[in-house]
Amino acid sequence: MSTEGKGELGGEQQFVSLIHDRLDALRTGAERAVQAGLARAATGLQARLERDVTVSEQGRTVTELDAVESGLCFGRIDFTDGAAHHIGRIGMRADDAERTPLLIDWRAPVARPFYLATGYEPMGLRRRRHITTRGRTVTALHDEILDLADTLRTGHEDPSGDAVLLAALNSARTGRMADIVRTIQAEQDRVIRAPHRGVLVVEGGPGTGKTAVALHRAAYLLYAHREQLARRAVLIVGPGPAFLNYIGEVLPSLGETGVWLATLGELFPGVTATGTDTPAASAVKGAPGMVDVIARTLADRQRLPDPVLEIDHEDHGTLTLDRETARAARAGARDTGLPHNLARPHFAFRIIDALTRQLTERIGGDPYGGPNLLDPTDVAQLGKEVATSPAVQQAIESLWPTLTPERLVADLLADPAHLTDEEADAVRRAPGTWSGGAFTPTPWTPADVPLLDEAAELLGEDDTAARAAAERERRERVDYAQGVLDMAYASRTHEFEDKDDDESEILGVQDIVDAERMAERHEESDHRTAAERAAADRTWAFGHIIVDEAQELSAMAWRLLMRRSPTRAMTLVGDPAQTADAAGCGSWETILAPYVEDRWEYTRLGVNYRTPVEIMDVAAAVPRAADPAFEPPGSVRSTGVRPWARPVVAQNLAAAVAEAVKAESAPGAAEGRLAVIAPRALHASLVALLPEVSAGRSPDLTSPVVLLDPRQAKGLEFDTVLVVEAQTFADSDLYVSLTRATQRLGLLHTAPLPGALARALHGEGEAPGADATDGVDAAGGVDGVDAVSGS
Ligand SMILES: Nc1ncnc2c1ncn2[C@@H]1O[C@H](COP(=O)(O)OP(=O)(O)OP(=O)(O)O)[C@@H](O)[C@H]1O
């Protein structure tokens, strides 16, 4: 056996320094281009356009290059045929004539053996190397020998092949999710690189990497289908603002900034959903029956006179509109099949026509039964007068009002019809409150957003005025562009003029671009990314949609998402055992059948990378109580630290939590971040005793101690978790809360814990202390050992 390890670290250091120099050069180039662009006085349309495009594109490049700096190169694969590639966050080429590849993008097909090769299936590899860096310094190498006949050794061998993975999993959390690009596991890689078309469902228990995989899949899809997806944008839907903050850095660290991360509550432009619903309200609002309820509420707004409507026409006295005439007009408008606001002119036309006939009859009617005395011009004039009469317009508005989605849904919630009494009571709410002469609208909730979207579909947007304005603007741009072209023609060079135009090979700008095209190009100079434009457009069709915690979405939410995904290119990740929302939609079959029937793929992730086995054994007792066959995903780690539980008397609860936080933050306990997960009703009292804590709707997760309610904890993770009053949590909330810790878990409770959980904590058969005692004293120190059971 020989060793080629001498100088291996030095060799890799040389390479890493080289690619960082190259990164610097690329960044400097982009920064200079931005500076030069900003300094350039661009007067013409074309020049302005070019300048703006350069500044925004190069600006984005600078941001992207900055973000991939850390851990730029993390791997190397050596093939048995002597070829070798370094793998990194982005692809880079040398600045030579051949543009020699330096660093291979982790998403490139050639990088795949880095993630998939095994001793059994080496995929042509002799060796896989993990390169660990701090800043620009190489600090460690871990080599796996995949060609068993290979006797060369480097001195950096990692026989188990999981040292880098375990180091990543054991490292202290930062409050921001990190990418897993260095250690993607084979089952995850297959999901990440699955075909872009169609619906892919990825199911897996807590900590199996569903979120990580979803994010890396977005980056992969953008790499593999850049042309298409950069234009149509990728949307990732996550459960809440705290979660989006938590995952916000992953995609930039992979060099991707063009993905829109949003909660359901953000998917209706112009509406910020800051309100919350009771579980009963969200269940009613999410049910599929709401489609019918909204449609019927809208139909109610298309009213009929009862029995007649008297219209006081300014010039011609009272006109009467009877129920039958209005009904015929309504039927005609409905028969157009157009949305409400677009069908309104059809209704109005029929009403105006009927009223004009009435007036024509009154003014020109022959009492002896002869033909009407008015000629067609008089009738047309009368029609005009009727149509422009404010009283007539008002009558039409009262029967077929122009509606906004906000108006329709607010009215529905204020006075819910077509629901059972119980459902109506659950959702009923005032549109707002008056105070000191000012009206404050009731905030929208996330469950309102799909209702607004549904209403918007039924209402349609009367965009006649907007389209006319857009056409006016376009004409102005064309005229301006024509002016620019005329000037360009007038100022063409003498040489050019000396030549016969037809034969000339020198093309002027007017030869290659006409005014229409130039105006279009100006319009294209909307420098927002596709993701930014998509965020502002309710009708945007996304190139791909990824839904995290997909099990939470209601039937109404799925309707909204499917509208945004006409091609049905979607990745849905979730875990039915963690379903918390009462409106959560049940099985994947139920969710997907209306949209794709059974044409969807299903895959499972089976390894838990987050929660050590000691914690998972306890957490699994919760779903197992309802389903004895329940099997959690197998944990990849064990810490030797058992979760603890401590009963406390109610009046001491906040003090006991503060004490536990202190003890769990002391040297010797886990480093990193600690979360207290407690019912919202306790937050005020806990905040009072935890001065350093970050709490609220979107707490700062990078703070050492964070206070969350169980719903906010969804998708997050911390080194240490303290669950307070677990016995009050719904099962799924409890399961989620218990599976958030990477190192240590403690429970504080003022009443007995659910039996199955207590037994798991205390060891089978041992009854927990049901009566609360003063836990602070009884705890006898929070050393990670259960003070109650004494285990
Ligand atoms: N291949 C991997 N390499 C390193 N870390 C990983 C890997 N896969 C997952 N992890 C880590 O495991 C933890 C759990 O991952 P993630 O949050 O994606 O799981 P999840 O399935 O979405 O969990 P939950 O459903 O409980 O929210 C994260 O810290 C993630 O970085």
UniProtKB/TrEMBL annotation:
Keywords: ATP-binding, Helicase, Hydrolase, Nucleotide-binding
Pfam families hit by this protein: UvrD-helicase
Biased composition (Low complexity): 769-791
Molecular-function GO terms, alphabetical: 3'-5' DNA helicase activity; ATP binding; DNA binding; hydrolase activity
Region (Disordered): 765-791
PANTHER family linked: DNA 3'-5' HELICASE, UVRD / RECB / PCRA DNA HELICASE FAMILY MEMBER
Protein's name in the database: UvrD-like helicase ATP-binding domain-containing protein
Biological source species: Streptomyces tsukubensis
Organism placement in taxonomy: Bacteria, Bacillati, Actinomycetota, Actinomycetes, Kitasatosporales
